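Entry 14. Ran structure prediction on the chain below.
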Amino acid sequence: MKEAAYYEKLDNGSVRCMLCPHRCFLQPGKTGVCRARRNIGGTLYSLNYGYASSLALDPVEKKPLYHFHPGSYILSAGTFGCNFKCSWCQNWSIAHGEEQAAPAEEDLSGLEDGLVQGHEGEQLSDRDEERSHAWNHMGVRLVELEPERLAGLAEQYAGHGNIGVAYTYNEPAIWYEFVLETAKLVKEKGLVNVLVTNGFISEEPLEELLPYIDAMNIDVKAFTGEFYKKYCRGGLEHVKRTVERAARNCHVEVTTLVIPGLNDSPEEIGELARWLSTIGRDIVLHLSRFFPNYKMSRTAPTPLKTLEMAQKSALEYLDHVYLGNV
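Output, structure tokens:
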């Protein structure tokens, strides 16, 4: 646990978190929308600082990043919590579950052994997967992971094709203090930092973080504000701002999950692509196939024909449009 960045103290011990556009107002003892930042005695604390729920050495294409060091691997780490409430979340257990204190005596020794075995995209061993990614009624199971440790692991596995660290699996913006400190250390070692993010972050913390970020994959969930409000509890305009700003500083690729009946019309995908083309025709767009998950377990998978029509529409404006999960 660490005192959070970007908040202001208010009267009567209340605080307002300024990290993301939710601007959560928190009375003492209350936790924000992200469930990772809590007002304790009039001070806002990051609850997930120094704790990881997931750690793996993944192909960079899995982020997905197709035009950034293709063929390489990247050490990928995540924690718990998210500032969105997407009904189809594939990582819902770490994004939306209940909290649990980190086990006091667990360490990463087993995880490190598993990383060597997993450097070709394989998952961690069953034992390490259970330790690092288990879920029970109490909440997410965590292991301690300090910035120096993660940066050191990234350097250690450079010999296995690792190019740096990806902050992923849950929303990295709410792991902000940890990500910022780790990213600085990773850059000092000559390695790269990647964010896999929903883009819902306030402007000032984004500006502070961007000098240390080499690439981002940003989810643009849909291209209507109504969709964001109803299905994500977020805002499209804030995400668009992040995409536009990040593209001026680092490599950016965009992912949209195409969900039947919600954001799958060729017209909407065309408008998304047209907007992206104002940033540059060469920006990469990934159109991913939806499969039932979380609160949308009864929604049918996206028909392949729908994806193909969406890709055709996007290619009118962009040079690189890829289909995923097909």
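The chain is about 30% helix and 25% strand. Will compare against last week's run tomorrow.
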